[in-house]
Design a protein that fits this description.
Strand content: over 45%
CATH class: Mainly Beta
Number of strands: 7
CATH topology: Pnp Oxidase, Chain A
Number of domains: 1
CATH superfamily: Electron Transport, Fmn-binding Protein, Chain A
Helix content: 10-25%
Order of helices and strands: HEHEEEHEEHE
CATH architecture: Roll
Radius of gyration: 18 Å
Structural class: alpha+beta
Length: 145
């Protein structure tokens, strides 16, 4: 018997997107050469993609150099926890139509800075897992097989 089956559950794609849609803070992982970076960003889900705003700087530069990114969101309560990872390609929105559409999204900076650039992460895959939280089993007692 696999005890993890009772405490870890894989999400369907729809469940994963539902979790992403209910939150607004995630982490963007970029890679340029051998350097990995991780950035907290506030975001919205828009038609099966992630959209965030950013100022000029390392985050925008890095997604321009290498569009392959990871985006991760998680949350927990006393009873359960979950994590969703999106693997995809990030691109700066440049067309007037795309920017106008993004301006209509419920996406505002969390800090009082100007962020003129929109970035969309188009998902290649999404994976999510839910976890039941609880006390650690007795590591030294008799374990079921």
């Amino acid at each position: 018997m696999d005890a993890n089956k009772e405490v870890v559950r894989l999400f369907s794609d729809d469940e994963s997107w539902a979790h992403l849609s209910q939150h607004s803070l995630g982490r963007l992982v970029t890679r340029v050469g051998d350097v990995l970076d991780i950035f907290p960003v506030n975001y919205v889900v828009d038609n099966g993609s992630i959209v965030f705003r950013t100022a000029e700087g390392s985050k925008l530069f890095e997604v321009t150099v290498n569009e392959d990114v990871l985006f991760e969101v998680d949350d927990y309560t006393d009873d359960d926890a979950w994590s969703v990872v999106v693997r995809g390609k990030a691109s700066r929105l440049t067309s007037a139509a795309d920017i106008a559409a993004a301006d209509e999204l419920p996406l505002r900076p969390w800090i009082p800075t100007l962020k003129y650039n929109y970035v969309r992460v188009n998902a290649a895959s999404v994976s999510g897992r839910g976890f039941a939280r609880g006390d650690e089993p007795d590591r030294y007692g008799i374990q079921p097989y």
